[in-house]
Write a structure and sequence with these properties.
Layout lengths: L3 E8 L7 H17 L4 E3 L15 H4 L3 H15 L2 E3 L3 E5 L2 E9 L5 E6 L22 E3 L2 E5 L8 H9 L4 E6 L8 H6 L3 H17 L2 E6 L17 E4 L3 E3 L7 E8 H11 L1 H5 L18
Parallel strand pairs: 1-2, 2-3, 8-9, 9-10
Antiparallel strand pairs: 1-13, 4-5, 5-6, 7-8, 10-11, 11-12
Helix pairs in contact: 1-3
């Protein structure tokens, strides 16, 4: 298995209620990434529909979700590239599920994750995965885990994934600069950027893992005048952010060096401590330490 993987961070600006148009744009980015030799392409949360749940046609725009998963599977196989197609909203009866897929380069689904920690305004519209455990899975790049957006705020989610052997954690996100109250925003208009930049780096260090964080961006050249936060980046222990983007739509191609994770674990010994007999936080683990 190669030690260095090229990864495409695709910071898409999704057009509301336009899945076909958004897919076409995503496909174009992925084809460019494959031409550049990328082994993984990651898109943001809600990339097919944007997040406009109060629009009358929102549920209708999610109706063909299964067909888009199949189209991404075919694209992955054709281009020999792994794809995390952001998240895809799936209807289930009267409910909506927010799902992230990891599609392997052979076109097969290697992993599926339903968002667990719902942001407050999402809760009237989406169903959480609740008590289902966070699980990692094997991929051509190594062992991978997935989280979605507000999951980032919960270190417990990361600990559960690295307890299951995750080396890379992909986080498709739809996070804006004004995802707070007016009072919170007035304290620091750049507060959400500070939250994101600080947290994605911290999670990489404290878990000796790579974090592939891909957020939605604003319109090219106009994002600074919108609420889109962007800031997609790969974060690595010892190194910090790699290929960090601004707030506009675009693609950043980065190199993920797996040997850095070995150096980090050799220095910080986070996983070694977690599997040590008598570890003082062992009560927080829901699985054995065999995959650490």
């Amino acid at each position: 298995m190669a030690l260095v993987h090229k990864v495409a961070l695709i910071q898409l600006c999704p057009k509301p209620l336009a899945p076909a148009e958004n897919f076409a744009k995503a496909e174009s980015f992925i084809r460019n990434a494959a031409r550049e030799g990328c082994r993984l392409a990651v898109l943001p949360e809600y990339h097919l529909t944007s997040w406009v749940p109060d629009e009358p046609n929102f549920k209708e725009s999610c109706a063909d979700s299964a067909s888009y998963v199949k189209r991404y599977q075919a694209l992955a196989k054709e281009l020999n590239i792994c794809i995390v197609p952001g998240t895809i909203i799936e209807p289930e009866g009267d409910s909506l599920l927010n799902i992230a897929y990891f599609i392997s380069s052979d076109g097969e689904v290697a992993g599926r994750y339903q968002k667990k920690n719902l942001w407050h305004p999402e809760r009237p519209h989406l169903v959480s995965s609740a008590h289902q455990p966070h699980e990692a899975f094997d991929t051509p790049l190594g062992r991978v885990g997935m989280l979605i957006c507000w999951d980032l705020a919960f270190p417990e989610a990361f600990r559960e994934l690295i307890s299951d052997g995750a080396q890379i954690i992909c986080i498709p996100t739809f996070w804006t600069m004004k995802d707070v109250s007016d009072k919170g925003y007035s304290l620091n208009p750049d507060g959400e950027a500070l939250f994101l930049n600080s947290t994605v780096v911290s999670r990489a260090f404290e878990n000796t893992c790579a974090v592939v964080f891909v957020n939605a961006g604003g319109p090219p050249g106009k994002a600074e005048n919108t609420n889109f936060a962007g800031l997609s980046q790969l974060t690595m222990p010892h190194i910090g952010p790699i290929g960090k983007m601004g707030r506009s739509e675009g693609m950043s191609i980065v190199e993920l060096d797996m040997s850095v994770l070995e150096v980090a674990e050799d220095n910080y010994k986070v996983r070694e401590d977690m599997k040590r007999e008598g570890w003082h936080y062992a009560f927080t683990q829901i699985r054995d330490a065999s995959k650490l």
